[in-house]
Amino acid sequence: MIRAKISGIHAWVPPYILNNKELESMVETSDEWIITRTGIRERHILKGEGLGTSDMGAEAVKGLLEKTGTRPEEIDLLICATVTPDMLFPATANIISDKTGIRNAFSYDLNAACSGLIYALVAASRFIETGSCKKVIVVGADKMSSITDYTNRETCILFGDAAGAILLEPTTDGTGIMDSILQTDGSGRVHLHMKAGGSIKPSSHETIDAKEHFVYQEGQPVFKFAVTKMADVAAEIMERNNLTSKEIAYLVPHQANLRIIEATARRMGVSKEQVMINIERYGNTTCATIPLCLWEWEKKLKKADNIILAAFGGGFTWGSIWIKWSI
Ligand code: UT7
Asked: How confident is the model over 39-48, as pLDDT tens digits?
């Protein structure tokens, strides 16, 4: 049986660090409030005129190709999960491919908000399992600072910029992507969206004056859904594969709020040591949170380790993946 294995992982974060202290000088907030409610201490921000999501994605992909000894022309497909594309069209995946010399591939963007990385991994795995692609790169990249209102304390403390890239290839050794659950509830869009800039409300002087090109989030309802759905879906993938908490090497949760991560871990019955958490240093980087974790924990992972990825995001979207680590 052909499965898709993760054969390489790399990530890139911009050098500028925006810490809670600096945010205290921008909005009415405190380091203590931010840490207690979210677990975030600092986040990285991409500075520089003309730089976008593709620039971070390209850095991650270049590092991945180098690290895995892969030539750009060997790549068959590149999928970029993002909510902050360089522009509405063409796809940021095409721009990343162009910037990294990937010329023999097709590429496209996938928008599932904070669950984007999980959705993209599942899509990529299908192209590999069916034999239509041999080497696929999944990029999770977001320049959240480009859609964050730094006068709104409810959202500006949450987000950071980053990119991660994952190489997938076929394997028959019993490891790889073993199972996945993806779910959507479009009625949740009212709680988390961007009001203008799309076809319902194209950009205008009025939409800019009304600050409608930023993330709009009703924190509490999103929190309520996220805390339940992410825990449910992580527990469900364990149950239906008869995995006990002892058999799990790591939970890799989307990093939106430390309290949501802890609730998911409790529901799965795993200890803190079994959970990848780096929200403290990066904040919520939307599609990049999961690859950032895998990249930082890579050296601790052993072949055949059971890893559960879980995410929840705008849409609403949520999902989980069971991976048997291959490297
Ligand atoms: O990644 C995609 C999915 N997104 C999520 O999963 C995010 C889910 N939501 C959350 O993580 C949390 O709801 C937030 C971190 C966004 C907010 O935390 P909360 O515990 O739900 O706070 P709250 O919105 O209920 O606000 C509590 C109080 C309010 O004041 P009052 O009305 O009690 O006087 C807010 O105005 O805290 C106030 N507040 C702040 N105070 C200091 C809100 N933001 C801040 C702030 N600093 N930055």
From this structure: 999 999 999 9
Answer CATH for 3-174 from 3.40.1080.10, 3.20.20.70, 1.20.120.790, 3.40.47.10: 3.40.47.10
Starting at the edge strand that comes first in sequence, how are the strands of the sheet with 106-110 ordered? 3-12, 161-171, 136-143, 77-81, 106-110
Ligand 1 atom having least distance to the Cα of 38: 15
The reported pTM is 0.98
Look up residue 213 and give its two tokens: 């090109």
Ligand 1 pocket test, pick from 30, 37, 84 with the greatest ligand atom count within 8 Å of Cβ, gives 37
* Fold observed for domain 178-324: Peroxisomal Thiolase; Chain A, domain 1 (3.40.47)
Q: Tens of pLDDT along 208-267? A: 999 999 999 999 999 999 999 999 999 999 999 999 999 999 999 999 999 999 999 999
Q: Report the distance separating Cα 22 and Cα 30, nearest Å.
A: 10
CB distance 221 to ligand 1 below 6 Å: no
Catalytic annotation present for 213: no
Cα-to-centroid distance, 223 and ligand 1 (Å)? 9
